[in-house]
Structures are given as C-alpha cells and as structure tokens.
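Review form for a predicted model. The reviewer records the input and the model, then writes brief findings.
Reviewer: anonymous (R2)
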Amino acid sequence: MGSATQPPPTTPRSHASVTQQPGQQPPRLSSTQKAYREDPDGFVERLQARANSLYPDGYTVRPASEPHRFLVAHTNPKDGTVTEYTVSAWEERCTCPFYARQANGERLADGGPLLPCKHLVGLPALVRETWRQHARDGDVSALTALWRHWMVFVAARRRRRQIAEWTERRQQQQQSHADCVTEQTTQRKEESNEPGRCAGSCCAR
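Model under review:
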C-alpha cells in the first residue's frame, strides 16, 4: 500500500535536478518529463481528464486524522489491492509518485513550478461522488464525517482568500496614498522653485 501521512521530502535527489558539468552528457529525462515537454498543453488536458474520472476509475476519499488532509484510495479491479495517498488540500501537496518526484527535483519543465497531480485537481469532484455513494449506501456516519471534514477546509480556504483580498486592497490603498504624497511633495518643490519677488531689503526699496 502506498499510504503515507507526511508530505514528501523536498530535498532534491533526482538525477534530473543535477547541474550539468562541462563535458557531461545532459541528464536523461523520464518518460513523464518527455511527454510534458513534447506537448505541455496536451499533457495538462490528459491530466485534467484523469482528474475528472477519479471516481469512475475506482477512487474514493475519506478524512485523514489531520485537518485539511484527505486519504484518496484506489482499488485495483483485477486483484482488489488498495493504494492510498494523503492529499493536503491546504498545502496543495500529495504523496503520490507523480507529485513526489517533482517535489524531489524531477520537474516536468526545466526550473518550472510543480504541476498538481490528478488527486489534487480532482479532489472536490471525488468528495462529491463519495458523498453520493455514502448516501446511496445509507452510510450516514461516513457521509457526515466526510462532509464536516470538507466544510472545515472550505471555511479555512474562504478565510484565507478573504485575508489575501483584504491584504491586496490594503497594499493598493497604501500605494495610492504614497503616490499622492509623492505628487504633493513634487508639486510643493516645483512651486518653491518658481521665480518670484524677493522679500529681502534689496527688493523692498
């Protein structure tokens, strides 16, 4: 079983992250890196399609013991084996190999950001489908536990967005005030430099 409770390490250890030295062969790309670099748009579209079909493909989700984390499990239809990954909706991290390889240095694009895995992208839809399955099964306890866990995350995400929006507005207001002060200061300097009648005794005669 591929379950884990902690986010993947971020210390680079992949051959793809090693700096090439003069005279060395370029690092070999993984099949995933090749597929992304040959057709990044198509790669993202295929990832989105897999994210949209998590539930039909045999995935389910249940709450983890930590807030904002979910256990996404896949049951192999051939032998019934279950593979489970921990998805952190808050940190946008996953313990699946696709995400872990990127976090460990094997970036899809050279020096590019981490691409979210299908478990992260498809988590909201998977939660909804799992709710519906619990409702069909009459499993009120499991439905309620998943609903409460998800609502805690949704409320926290809403607060984070509100804080980010308030911070952005505050920064814009401060910048606007700073621009206004600068403009007024410049205007006063320009006015003070304008030629005028001297108030000294030489011009008072």
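Findings: Residues 1-20 have pLDDT under 50 and may be disordered.
Further findings: The first helix runs from residue 31 to 38.
Recommendation: see findings above.
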